[in-house]
Amino acid sequence: MANATLTIGGIVGLTLAVPIVGSLLPPKSSATGSWSPLSAQELDALAKATAKPVKLTFTLKFTDGYLPEQSADEYCWGIRVDNNAKFAAARPDIFNQPGGKADVPYDVVNMNFVLFSPICPHLGCYYSWHDEQNRFMCPCHGSQYTFDGTHVAGPAPRGLDPLPMRGQSGNAQVMWIVYQSNTPSRIVVSYQA
Ligand code: FES
Is 13 inside a domain boundary? Predict the structure, then answer.
């Protein structure tokens, strides 16, 4: 049953709740974030990964002013989360609102997955996963994060930033968001590459 929920077919019927809290995102009507489909193969790998993150690649499409639509190759990191309460307890930098709510206006855990922006919250370099250290490590100034994105070393002011995920038309999708660097709180800067 658990595996069934993780299949793409199972994703179709899932509803993503997107409660609007706080003012970090524009209202729904003016949000400019776009949803990018994730590959079924990579999602399948994520569903089977218990202790290692999986790199999920996608094409990000966006518009910039009056220019034609542009696209960029991007990726995010996904982890499988089987215990929401345990994950929330490990990430007080996200679940820091009254009642233990998250500081982002979307569900952090979806379909037993959490997606992380690949951008280091310190000054914006792309970090990567290192099996030997069992850590996400940033090459620029040495920030390190555990499997669940907890900041454990280096100058970053917060843990890894989650990204919205949803099931739509038989696919899972991710929304790209760039958050402000080097602040303890998550402030949206852009929805573009
Ligand atoms: S940008 Fe990652 S540690 Fe500075």
Answer: no
Residue 56: CATH number of its domain: 2.102.10.10
Question: Which ligand 1 atom lies nearest to the CA of residue 124?
Answer: 1
Q: Taking CA 89 as the corner, what is the angle to CA 144 and CA 156, rounded to the nearest 5 degrees?
A: 25
Domain assignment of residue 4, yes or no? no
Kindly state whether residue 22 falls inside one of the protein's structural domains. no
How much is the average pLDDT of 68-90?
95
Q: Which residue minimizes the CA distance to atom 4 of ligand 1?
A: 141
Structure tokens belonging to residue 13? 């019927």
Place of tokens 């518009």: 63
CA of residue 146 to ligand 1 center, whole Å? 15
Whole-structure pTM value: 0.84
